[in-house]
């Protein structure tokens, strides 16, 4: 078993001309799989979803209607947690493109968060957050504005089986 340690910026505080960034560390143990012999476990630490594989990293968000070969189909919860905690607590300015941006839940997904909501891209297989100038991908975290610590969130994704502009579907946690 190998242990990897990573840090990501949790939040930045600006005081006059000086900025302080708080870093949160995670240690992740990467093993050789559970070897449980369950029917859905190949013994190599992977759980099968048809032909797609999810790393044996514990709890994950499943974006069921994304193509099985899409790496965004499965987002490990530990990665999503880290990215959401590091995501900005306020939307980009009016008239500007980018993230986070307001989320109105026009699709009426059954979200566990409410209030003034923001959406922010989630990336697969990383603790790092999305940065401007890079593709956001199809998956978004939805969380309450100005609630940075202990932030609760849901995961939604652009569902390719839906037509039109209202195409978000809530991911399921497993």
From TrEMBL:
Region entry Disordered, spans: 85-106
InterPro entries assigned to the protein according to its UniProt record, in alphabetical order: Ribonuclease/ribotoxin
The entry's keywords: Hydrolase, Nuclease
Keyword Nuclease: yes
Molecular function terms from GO: hydrolase activity; RNA binding; RNA nuclease activity
Biased composition (Basic residues): 93-103
UniProt name for this protein: Uncharacterized protein
């Amino acid at each position: 078993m190998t242990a990897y340690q990573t840090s990501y910026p949790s939040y930045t505080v600006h005081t006059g001309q000086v900025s302080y960034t708080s870093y949160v560390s995670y240690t992740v143990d990467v093993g050789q799989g559970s070897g449980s012999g369950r029917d859905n476990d190949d013994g190599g630490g992977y759980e099968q979803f048809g032909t797609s594989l999810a790393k044996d990293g514990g709890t994950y968000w499943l974006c069921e209607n994304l193509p099985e070969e899409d790496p965004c189909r499965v987002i490990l919860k530990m990665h999503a947690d880290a990215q959401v905690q590091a995501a900005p607590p306020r939307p980009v300015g009016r008239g500007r493109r980018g993230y986070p941006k307001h989320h109105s839940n026009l699709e009426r997904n059954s979200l566990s968060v409410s209030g003034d909501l923001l959406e922010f891209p989630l990336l697969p297989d990383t603790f790092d957050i999305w940065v401007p100038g890079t593709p956001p991908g199809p998956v978004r975290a939805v969380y309450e504005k100005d609630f940075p610590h202990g932030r609760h969130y849901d995961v939604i994704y652009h569902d390719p089986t839906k037509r039109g502009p209202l195409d978000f579907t809530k991911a399921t946690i497993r």
